Every structure is written in structure tokens, then in C-alpha cells.
## 1
Amino acid sequence: LRGGIPGLKERLLEKRENAPESSEARTLYEKLAEALDLLTALCLRYREQARALGLTDMADSLDRIASGAPESLRDALQLVHLYALVSGSLNYGRMDDWCGRFLKGDPGELDLVVAFWKGINQRGCTWDGRVILGGRGGEEEEAADRFALLAMEASRVYRDILPQLTLRFYDGQNPALLEKAYSNYADGCVYPMLYRDEINVPAVQDAFGLPEEEAEQFVPFGCGEYILDHRSLGSPNGIINLPEALNRVILDDSREYPTFEDLFTAYRQLVESQVSALAKHQSLEDRIAGQECPYLYLTLLYDDCIARGRPLLTGGARYRGGTLETYGNTNTADSLTAIRRMVYEDKRMTLSELRRLLRDNFAGGEVQRQALVRCPKYGNDLDEADEMLVRVHEHICRFTAAQAAPNGLASYLVVIINNNTNTYLGLLTGASADGRRAGEPMANANNPTSGMDVSGLTAFLNSLVKPDCHIHAGAVQNMKFSRELFRDHGEVVRALMNAYFRKGQQAMFNILDKGELEDALAHPERHGDLIVRVGGFCARFVTLDRDTQKEIVSRMLYGADAV
């Protein structure tokens, strides 16, 4: 955007002249320049189509970005939209950082941003479409803040599932940004999602092993996994079903576990064997993809690729990492808590009896299932349950991180970002020792199992902040609040969230009327415009499959009585 297409091409041609003849770098610079020529031709082709349709402003903008640097907000948004389409990029980074400088205070700027939002939404990249606002380490902060306020208003006006508007906030930031976010919530808008820099920047430093100035460039993308803006790669190319791993250990008739620690060790060993294979898979995918495709348009804008003369995946990008999605963390921890208490401490059932109950999906064993359900559950600020969740969390996160170096990755980190795969995997997973029946959904992300957080909002928030956020690359915290709570008790909600964000890294809200989801389930024709947070993404409720709808309905709704 600073130099436009011609400025970027000029830089490439200078690099080509200084590169050795017949070198891979020289060839890369030539092909990158050709890619920019194609983009220029695309702009000119659309210019002619726009003129034929009488779209003078669009035609003039396309003419300008074909021949020089963008001069206006329209030019900048037009160029970025086209670049995203040709490159295949699904997320938009720190948009206020690169867009704020083009604001002039014109009345039509809100309409331009709304139009850009529509363009993102029309791409249909449901699990992506992230736009980041705010945060430390930005440029031209005053201009960026003006754009952030405009962007939040655009999402309030244009209510749809994309873009996934995200606000990074911190002490000392312009308070109008966070005020605008809460104003959107009070109006029933699910955007922006909130990320606190005081928690996230040190966490990214530690998890990725980076200096502070690099960690300040973290951005959530997709469903919430962290990368560094135009510096790192970390797409999740593997998933692991932790309750299924625990079940395979429990249901192995050939093994007995005299102590709880024996059983937990067997679970750890099975998980570690799977994670080791998934880390190798991540590295192999990157290597093969890099051999097959240079990803020219992404290579052009990723830091270090041009300087090094290397394509994105074969030595160009500054940090090439990976992430592993984990599912059922909470169910696994709650199951282990129940097993330790029921089998090993209180001896209310034997391991053989538990095996039979799980194999038979609790048929004829409702009394025993209810006893498992009544065992302490994560989400209620109970040390016994929460400490087990932390133990499961620390094991999978630390072992996964240790697989980076052996597989040639800058990082390999867990992401607890559940979209609705917790529901899909639940359909394929047998009964679990937390009392969950076969086929039922798993808990979503780092949240309690639906309906098991029965001790109130404060206890729920206290549990959420206990897992260490310095050892993974992102976790989703879904919170379901009533409109009444935000509308009539806004100050109380803010006080609660201020306390939560002393340790909490992230929050995303479903804001609903009491009974609204139940009515939408029964009468979908009345609720075509109802947008809900599923996990790390949003959707129109009526477009979701029935199982996912029911899982969202089952989550605890905190209303005015919660305060």
C-alpha cells in the first residue's frame, strides 16, 4: 500500500539485478514481477468493465492502483480486496495499522468499509476472515484508532458472520475503543472479540520464544490460532481427540492399572505417540507444499522472503511453525477426576465395571452415570476438577511444543480453538467417564461441558483463567450472556470482565434474549437473522446442523440473576 504495485515491482527488479545469473533467487524475483504484471492487468480489465457499467468511481480507483500507490480509502480497500482474491489469503491482519492513514473524515467512509465487509463475507471463508484492530506495536496510533472505531461501527451496521472483527486492547489505549466494543454488545452485536495485550504479548513471547517487539505483532487468525502478522506461518494441519485416547486406554482389557497414576501414564504415552506422528505430518505437509508451489502472491508480502530470495515455505518466511488442534480437553479432565474419585479413592466401582458402563453406553447403569456426573467438574472454581484440567492441559501443550525442533519447525503449539468439531467428533466418540453418553458433543474449547458450570458467573470465570496461556498458541473462551445483562447491568459486566482480564487472555460473546435459541430451534423461520458464536467462528443459527444447534442451546446462559 505504501508504494503500490509499481513500487513493489521496482524493488523486485533492483533485487533481480543484484542476484547472481541463473540463481534461484533471480528466477524468483522475475516470477514475482510477472505476478505483479498479472495483477496490474487484472486491475485494468476490471477498470474497463466498471466504465462500461457506468461505475466511474470504481473505474478511476482501479486506474490509480494499476499505475501508482493508493491515494484514498477506496483505493486501499480495492487493492487489498483484489490482492486477497488472487493470493488466496483468507485473513486481513492489523487492518487499522495499514488502513488508518487513508482516512480523511469523509461521510462516505463508513459505506466503503461496509462494502469491504460485504466483500469478505461473500468469499464464504466462514472459519477465517479475521480483521484485527488495536494492540501494542502498531504504527500511526491516532489514525489507527479512528479506523478501529469506524470498523466497529461498520460491524454494528452490517450484521453478518464475517469479518471476524477482533480488538486487541491494553492499558493506556484510547478508552473509546473498548467503550465502543461494549456499546456494540449492548446492541446485540457479537463483534468485536476481545484480546488483552497485557496477557497475550508475554504469553506469545514465552510460547513462541520471541523478543517482545516480535510478540507485539501477534494476530489471531482463522478460529483463533496465533501467528505473527506477515512474519510467521502456523496453520493447524492436525487434530487430536483426547477423550478417545483416554477411552482406548480404559477399554484395553489386556491391561490393568493398579493406581490412578498408572492409568494416567498410559494415557500420556498414547497421546504422545499420536502427537509425535502429527508433528511429523505437519513438517511433511509444509515440505511437499513448498516443493509444489512457491505461493508467489503470499511470498511477496511476507517478511524476509524478498530479502532472502526464497519462496514462502522453502526458507522465505521468517518463522515457519505449526499448530495442533486439541478437542475434548475438558471432558478428558473431568473423566479423569471422576475415575480417580470413583474407582481409586472412594472405590464405588471397579475399573472393570467402568469398562462395561462405557462399552454399553451406560445401559442399565443410570445410577452409576449420575454418580459420575456429580463428581467435581471444571468450570465451578473447584480445585479438584480445575487442577486436573490444568494437568491435562500442561501435558499436551508442553509435549507438543517439544516436537518443534526435532521436526525442523520454528514452533509447534497446541491451539484450543474449537469451532464445531467438538460436536462432530462427539458423534464419533463413545461414552466417557465424565458421564457423557456416546455421540453427545464434547465441551467447546477451553470451556466447561455445557450445563456443568452450575456455581455462577464468577466461579465460571475463575476456572477459565487457570490453564496456563504461556504454553500454547491460542484458546477460545465462549461466554453466553443475556441482552438484559449487557443492557441493564453494563457497569457490573464491565467490572466482572475487568477482573477476568487480569489473567484472562480472550473473550467472545453470544448475546441473546432468554429463550431465543430455544425458539429458533423450534421455529427457525422466525430467526433467519440470528447470528451466534459457535466456537472460533460465527454462523447464522438456522444454517447450522441440528446437533451443533443443540450444543449451543445447552451452554449456560448468564443473565441478570448472575450478578
## 2
Amino acid sequence: MASIVLFTFVALFPSLKNGFVNWDDPAMVTENPRIRNISRENVKWMFTTFINGHYLPMTLLSFSLDYVLWGLNPLGYHLTNLLIHIANAVILYCLALFLFDLTRKNMRIKGRKPFMVCAGLSALLFSVHPLRVESVAWVTERRDVLSALFYLLSVLAYLKAQSYSANPIKYKGLMAGAVLSLLISLLSKAWGVSVPLILLILAIYPLRRLGTKETGWFSRKTWKVWVEKVPFFILAIGAMLIAPLAQKAASAAFSFKEYGIPLRLAQAFYGITFYLKKSLVPVKLVPMYEIPQPFNPLEFRFISSAVLVVIITGLLILFRRKWPSGLAVWTSYIIIVAPVLGLFQSGIQLVADRYSYLACMGWAVLLGGGILSLWQKSRRQRIYRPVLSSILLLMILWLTVLGVLTWQQAGRWKNSLTLWKYTSTADPENIMAHYNIACIFMEENQDKEAIRYYRKVVRLFPAHVKALNNLGTLLKDQGKYKEAIRYYKRALRYNPNVPGIYTNLAQAYEKQGDIEAAAGYYKRALSLTRDPLIYNGLGEMLLRHNETEKAIEVYREFVAAMPDNVQAHHTLGILLARQGKLVEAAFHHRKVLKIQPGHAEANNNLANVLARQGKIGEAVQYYRRAIKADPNFTNAYVNLGVVLLWQGEIEEAGKWFNKALEIDPENRTARENLNRIGNLKKREKH
């Protein structure tokens, strides 16, 4: 067991040097304020929300525990993932050992060493395989390793319970533990929906509690076998009802109309063979294997996959009596991987390395069992001993190769740029890789590189709306307005319901001097969403081009659409005051102060309006409120001094002008008024 821990830790050690990546990690961890303390409110949110198409409160809670220990240091999150993965390998070892022990009487092998060695090989084949890297090295995929941990504990507790059927207390305790473990697994990720069916397969083989000549399927002897599965099925059905809601919340699920049955079947057959092939030849593993565009289900790879699946299934059914373990593992494999084969498609991935995490465990156990069977034969017939020695040597070499490949693959998740550049090299037509690289360069203001990669994206996938929009924005920032407009319009052809693209178009047209066209696109954006930023964008553009009346109309619409928006009332009040519409201006300034009493500028602006209306006493009160709200608000000091000067309160006015100069020694108005006060005092003396 110690060797399992050591080899797994070493193979995946590079993951501890990795950071976060720009693929779901921000939403799950780095930009998720809900994980930053384990408060009642945050825990309630975890258990009542969907995130990225999943329901996973226990995973989110584990991130909160990490945050308590590590803050946002990625080392801690990666270490937790790795430790859970190592725990999974150890539990798989225990599971394999338990299953091998069931055949011990038939094997006639003395001692436990062969069983332990073969169980250890099974665990290592699982844990150091490069297909495991994505689930371990990607922080977001904590949901995989955590869900698998309790999935395995549930199965192990169930199997252990069968050993204590004559001891009701231990039996009930282990069965309760199995049900509780399944619940936690489902709260980490919905993988556990397959547990009841896996338990049924185990009841058939190797436990032989169902489907034999002695038991049958629905006899008195099998009644307990069926009844004990009921709690597992109830939990699984509950999770199956929640999963579509989570996908709908993320708008991730494809309808059958947009993604038909032939495509789903082609994807399913391909997925079944893909994980087998990558288990044998784990090279060119990338984080995203995209659904081909266009998707032709009659391509050779899809047809050949379907044929291969049918042949394998037929042969295993044909030889089920001679090799029941083969059919049991094949059936379990398909059941576990079925929810992610595309039959209920969510997202743009055709297949994904992480989907093999649980599904391929059976193959590792089956191979370990095969070596154990050969070990038995070598004890009886010497002719098999060289064969066994050769296979064990090959297994050691193969595990070494897998460990090296896993080490390399783990390092490729070092950071976002490393990950996506590797992906674009391994798969030059990977749209997501090129897009993510472009986004990284765009964030780092490396516009030339960003444009280069965005052009690759739209060349590979002309309907990529986000890439078209971002490319337009980069070109607009470079002053290439005509080209930017072309890309924005291309984006709108594919999706005419994105307000931000209309806003970007408006800005590009304004830069070209076409204010009418710009205003039209702002209004198109507003027809899709009542966004304050769009109202402000349109209003400010009109003001820049001296279209004050039109700007006022925009802000009137703004306050009508959003009566409690401070910015809308504030700006409208300023514009109306400039036009001398003092009563209406005062109304909007008062509206701001009703919503936000401590708004310094609104207090100052209302005071200005009141002063112009001759309401000096009330104006003085609002100037004082403005100063109280912002003690460094120079204009309020100056304005207060001016109205006091109007009233002849020279000394008081001078005090406020001096305070303004303490804050801003260069304030020309305050200095001029102080000079004026000095002149007035000189005249009084003469």
C-alpha cells in the first residue's frame, strides 16, 4: 500500500507546482466570494445553487476549507486534489483485494501475497495513468476525485456488508455507511447515479446472489438483494432529476432538435472506444476534444467505433459463462460512462479525459485479476512461470512509462498559457485552445498576438461570436474602425441578441463620426436589455457632440426604466440645471439624495440649484451636508463661501475659501474670492 501512495505522489508531483487556469477555476475558486468563509449564508448558497451546469455543494464546501487553510495559494488546492486521488487509489486497492479474495477458494493459492501484489498493480494502473491527470491537476475537477472517493467507499461498504449478513448490527451499519457515502458522492458530483446498477452487477458477479440456478432473479432468496438496493436507487433517481435542472440553469444542454439522435449515437459509440484506446495509448491527451464542425456521423471513426462496440458486446455475451468477469466489467464500464457519452449532451466536448476517471477502474481490476489467474496456473504448471515473470516485468515497465507520461502531462497544466499552447500544438485545429490563448494575450495587452489567435479561431469556426466580437474590439482600439465594424456585423449575423456587440458597433461608428448610426446601435442594444451602461454610453456620446436635448431625452428614458438609478437622476439633474430648468433639476437631485443621502455631489448640485432660486439658507444647509459627506470636496467649500459672500458674511465666507485652499492650493476661484474679500476690507477701512 505504501508503494501505491509513493508512486502516485511522485507521478503527479508536478501538479503541486501548478497555478489556477482560466477554465472554470475563476468561477469555482479564484473569483468566487462564496467560498471565502464558511458562513451559514454561504453554506446555504452552496446547497441551493447550480454552478457551471453542476450541483456540487460538497465540492464547494471543500474549496471553502482549502481557502481557510491556504487562501488563494494554488498549492493547497492541488495538494488536496492529489491526496484525495491517492486515497482513491488506496480504496481501489482494498476493493480489488476484496474481489480477488472472493475467488480465493477456487484459486488455491497459498498466502495473501499474490492477491496483494495483483490488487496493488490494479491500483497503480489506475492511479498513475495519464488519463487521471485532468481530474487531479485541474483544480475545478475536485468534483471528480471527491465524488469518486465516496463512490468507492459506498461500493466497498456494500461489499463488506455482505460479509456480515449473519451479524445484523454490522450489516446494517455498513449498509447505512454505503448509503451515506453515496449521498455525499452525489453532493460532490452526479457520478454516483450509476452506483445502484453497479451494485446489481456485483450481486450477479462475483457475489452470485442474483441470476444463478440456485437463486434465480425474483425468488424469496433474492428478495433481500432487491430491497437493499432501494435506498441507493432513491438517491440516484433524485440526482437524475436535479442534473437536467443544473444543465438548464447553465444553458449547457443541447436539445434533440439542434443535436439529433444520429449525432448522439455516433458520439456515444466513439466515446466507448475512445477511453479504451487512450488507456492503451495515452498520448496527445488534451483538455478539450471538440465536437467536429461539421459533424458527420458516417465518418469512419464513428462507424468503426459502433461496429467494434457491437462485436465486443456480442463476444462477451457469447463467452459470459467462461469469462463472466469480462462481461461484468464491460457492462459496468458502459453504465458508468453512459451519462457523459453524448446521449444527454451538455457542452461542446466530444469526449473528455476526466470522464474515464471512474469508468476505467474496472479494467485495472480486471487486468490485476488476469495476472492473479496466471499466477494460479503457474503454481500448478511450471510452463506458465516464465510467462508470469515476463508479464510482471512488462507491468513494471508499463507502469514506469505511464508514470513518466503522467509526470509530463501534469506539468502541462502549469498555467493557462502553458496548457492551451500545448493543446494547440497537439491539436492544431482546436478552437477552444486558440480562443483561450487569444483571451490571455488580450488580457495582457499583447494585441498583436491576440489578433493572430482570434483570426485562427474565426478561420476554423466562422460562427464563433465571442472571437468575432473580441477581434472587432482589438481592431477598433487600433483605429481600424471599418474592419472592426465588419467583424461586429459578422458576429451579429450569427447571434443578433448580444447587446454588447451593438454597443461596440455604436462606439466604432462614433469614432468614424457617424453619430446617427451610433445612436441607432445604442438603441438596438437597449431594445434587448435595460443596461445602465448602455444608457450612459448613448447619453455621454450625445453630450460629446453637443446634442444636449437628445441626451436629456435619453436620461428621461433612463429614469423611467430604472427609477432608483442614482446615476440617471444625477446626470439628468445636472443637464436640466444647465438649461435653467431649476425646479425639475432640484427634483432629480432630491431623488438622488433620497436613495443615497450621503451623495456629496448631489448635495452640492442641489445647493447650487437652490442658490440660483434665491433659497440661500437652504442652499447653505446642503453645502454643509456635501462637505460632511466628503471633507475633501473643494467645490463645496468654494460654493458655500460664494453664497455666504453674497449675503455679506465676509468673515465666514473667507473661512471656507481658506479651507478650500488648504485642500487645493491652486484653486483659482477660492484665491480670487479671498482677494476680493481683502479689497472689500480695504475699502471699508478707507
## 3
Amino acid sequence: MQYAPGSTVDPRPTIHLDREACLRIERAQHREWIEADGLGGFASSTVHLCGTRRYHGLLSGHLPDGGKRHMFLARLEEELIGGERAFPISTCRYPDTFHPEGWTSIESFELNPHPCWTYRLGLATLRREILVPRGQQAVLIRWTLSGERTGLKLRVRPLFAVRALDALQLENVDLNTRAHRNGRGIDYQPYEGLPTTHLVWSVDKPAFSADPLWYRQIEYSQDIARGYDGHEDQFAPGRFDLDLELGQSVTLAASLGGEVEDPSALFDQEVARRRAFPATNLVEQLGEAGEKFLYKDSAGRPGILAGFPWFEEWGRDTFIALPGLTLSRGDLEGCRAVLAGALPFLKNGLLPNIYGRDVASSHYGSADAALWFSRAVRLYMQAGGDQGFIKGELLPALISIAEAYLRGTDLGLRVDDEGLLFAGSEELNATWMDAQYGGEPVTPRAGAPVELNALWYALLGSLEELHEGEPMREEARRWRQQADKTAESFLRRFWLPDQRHLADVWDGERADGTLRPNQILAAAMDLSPLSIGKRTDVVAAVESVLLTPRGLRTLDPRDERYVGCYQGDSKARDLAYHQGTVWPWLLGMFTEASLRVRPVDSVHVRSLAEILNDFADHITEHGLGSVAEVFDGDPPHRPAGCPAQAWSVAEVLRSLVLLEEHGICGS
């Protein structure tokens, strides 16, 4: 849904943390915010601007050639200077200590919708705001002084960690230690061949003192907890000193690719743009969060980033998330643009799991990306998409996907004599349950996975519909025959009459009857081999043991392989990823399935609405304003993984909109 512009009133803060909440620093270190530029770059940190991951920083972005994302400006050290006293307002973690301890002066933090901090320093109050303007590789930081204290200076020291986003910087002799003055700030190029960072103030000729310093052993606690190296050295070329007057705001712009001409005006323009579409309820808040994942690459192709802060663009994630991020907000043109942008990458009936910036690195590790593309096309059709585009460009793509599967293609993809779609091998997990350890799948699903075959059947049904009409009657009949063959085999091989639910995988000889959530796709989609009765049984089976307040578990907790907590090093997390861990994106399919088989006024649907509306609490606890990648399978279902995940936001949003369309009020 689109939100009406025209509001001139600043809405109530989306998220507000008072002093007491902010002073619980260990808890506050787990609350993270994201500001995205729509080009793949972002600013991100914690409530105290104290980074806990190597991905936290103020200015990041892709290199000019479209290569790997890099961090540039990592953070700022900030102080208010009054006479002989210095009052720190920044915070950094080192082994066994925090320094400086600016967090002790914080009064509040809010997302409104950009991050804003208030500090009380004696008789002075200082407000800091950070935002990233859409469509520019830049970050803007504004400070505003109020209160009763005069004669104060703001001292700001910019610290750089110039390296690949997933790397760490250590002190080295190759780094250029000199910054060049540019009139209202400095230009700094730490390494030859890498972009220059331009720092520009909103005031003329700010005082800059060259004072090159290395800050050693900055500690990233979240990286260490995840089993990675977590210490870095950052470099500061000097410091700025600016006089602050009561009621005055000063704005700093840090940018790549060129200087920001007027930091203050750009800040005001971006704030006005956001206030024109105020988020006043959970649906609108998630719509605002979803916009951050939409981006354009260096060639201008629209796409979707899978998550912040470490994921880039993934084929499967893109097309699972696309309907929720666009169609749920009434944005048919945005959906069309992403679908059109994917078409050049469709090769041999497959879409690469990763595609976009570096075509040479694209790989076909996903058997289902093209099927999720087909699913997104169907939802675009049902939303009233452009018929000329559908028939002229999307239909040939869907035909090429189906024909490739019928012929057989990479990743072990083939349709057997019974019409079922097989994928993967003993060495390769080609579905979304793709975790591996030691070169072997943690969740082996080689064979015919239930969700791939539900998507396959829906694709065949869509092709029949798209070929309806006298000129294409034979083609429609061909796809109907294939769909009927698949449906018959689907029921014969997957339906477990004693358990009253679907098997997870048919390997050609036996059915794996493990109770997993993948079967919910067959109950959810409008084109399905299942009768209403069987859909109802699937929903009941999934609801009974897999449904949690944060999504669906990936394994029955009664199974001996179940792992209830997603934590620890890479091995521990890989072993838990699909063995009980809760995934919120599955709520989209569960909601759709529930609405197909249950009355909207039933206790089950009302309970589901409560679960979805309760995400209003979650968006204040982890990735602020967003939805996490995963949660623990065990209560209290602690959020984990990526703090802001595209398909999590998209499918919770889509679920809420579906409930609203059925007359069930959202948050």
C-alpha cells in the first residue's frame, strides 16, 4: 500500500529508548540500527554508536567498478569542550573496557525514523542525528546544542577502517597518513586505487588539526561470540574543532564519489522526504524497513539486498521477498522492475543464486531461485500487473524454466517419469535448507523436495492459464497434462495418510516423513495438488509443533536431531540452522494457508493475528525497526543471525496485509 504524502507534523517516534534502557549497555549493544543508501551501501551500529561487528560503520559502499563492498569511515570520536573540561559523547569497546564512556551521559535514543541521540552534559544538552540520503554514497551527521551552557566547542575525530566489509584492518605502513584540506573539511584517500572519502561541514573553514593516530585493538564482541576474529585497528588523520552556539546545528557529510555541496540542505531534504510518508503503525513501519533492502546496482538495475549488514543480493531471497516488499505496498512498478532486471541472468532455465554486480562470480547453487521467480510472477499477475510485459517477456521466461526442468539441467534438476522434480545430490543441498559442514549437507534433502514440487506444480498451472485461448489451446493442454501427472504423483509419494501431513522429501524409493515446515507451501498456494481437507491437515500438523510466536521451526522439537538454540561458532550455527531454528519468513506461507482453510473469525486466525502484531515488540529489541533472520527454536525465541533480513520483513508485512484484506485489523 502507498502512504499518502503531505504531512508536515513529525510523527511520534517509531522507537524510543529512555535513559534507563540505554544505560543497560550490554543489552543496548544488541540493539542495532541500519541506514541504507539504496545503492548497496549503508551506515549501521548499535544504540551507543559502539560497533560490535566489523560490519558496523558510518560509510560503506561498493567500489566504483561495482566490486566488493568496502568500509570507509568507521566511526567518530566526539567531545564537548568547555573551558578545561572535555565531555565525551562517543563510546568504543576495547578488551575489558569501554573508552570513551560517552554512554554514561545519554538521555535517550530514538528512531524517528532516522537515529537520534540526546546527551545531557551539565547545563548543556546535545542532540546527534545520523541519516543516509537515498541514492547517494554519503552519510550525514548533525549536532544541535541546547540548554543554558555557552562557550562550548565540538571536537570530532574521524576514524577510518578502509577494507573489504568482511575483513579487518590492522596497523600498517602502507596507509597514507595525510589528509588534504578542501575548504570546509578534508579529503582523505588512505590507499592508492581506493576511493577518496570527502568530509564536508556545513560551516566555512572548520578548524582541522593534523594529528595522525592509530587506535589499536578495538573489539567487536558480536564477531567474537560468533567464532570470528574480533579486533581491529582504526586510523584517525586528525581532528576538527568547531564553536557551538545555543540553538545552532552543524552538519557533517562524509561521501564517496564527490563532495556534498550543502550538507545542511541535503539533511533537511531527506528529513522532509521521510516525513511525507510517516510510519504510524506496524504495517507502515515494516514498509519503511522494507524500502532499505531495495537498491540499484552500478548499472542502474533494481534488485533486493538479502539482509543487513552482511548479505548482498541472492536470487532465491530476492524472489521470496519481492512480493512483500513491493506488491504489499501497492508498488507494481517496483515489482516489475526487479523481475525485468533478472531476465538477462536467466540461463538454461536457471537463475543464479547470487547475481548482479560481478557476473563472473555468479553461481547456480540454488535449484529453486527460478521457481521462486515464477511464484513472484504469479503474484504480480494476480495483483494486476502489465499484461503486455507478462505475455511478452515473463511468459517466455517461465516456459524456458519449465522446459529446462523437463530436459534436465544443472544441480541435479530433472523431472522423473512420474512428473516429480528432483534436485541436488548427496554432496549438494540445492534447496533453501542449504547449510553444509565439512563439505556435507547438514540437512540432506537430495531427491524430490516437497516445496520444490509444490512450486513446480504451480508453475505448470500458471503456464496453462497463460496459454488459455483459441490460438494456444494445444499449449494449454500440454501444460495441463503435465500438471495432472505431477499432481497424481505428488499425492501418491508425499501424502502420509497415518500422520495426516506431507513428507519432506521423496528420494525415488522412500518418503522422508520428518515433520518440517516446507510442506506449508503446498497448503498455501492457490494452485496446489492438495484438496481443502488435506490443506487443513497440513496446517494443523505444522501449527501443532512448528508454529512459534516468531515463525515456524524447521524441525519437530520431538525429533532427536532438534537443536533449540542458534548460537556459537560457525559449526554450531550451521548444525542448528535448519534443525529447529525458527524462520519468520515462513509465516507468510502459513498465513496464506490458514486463510484458505479457516474462517477469518476463528480462534486460530485470531491467534495468528496476535502473533503477527506482536512483531511490534520485536522491532524494538534487535535490528531496530526491522525483523531478524532467525530465532531460537526454544522459548523465549531469542533473535539471532542477520538483524535485518529482507524476506523476514517482507513476509511478515505480506501476512499483515493479507489479514487486513480479510477484514482482520492489524497493529
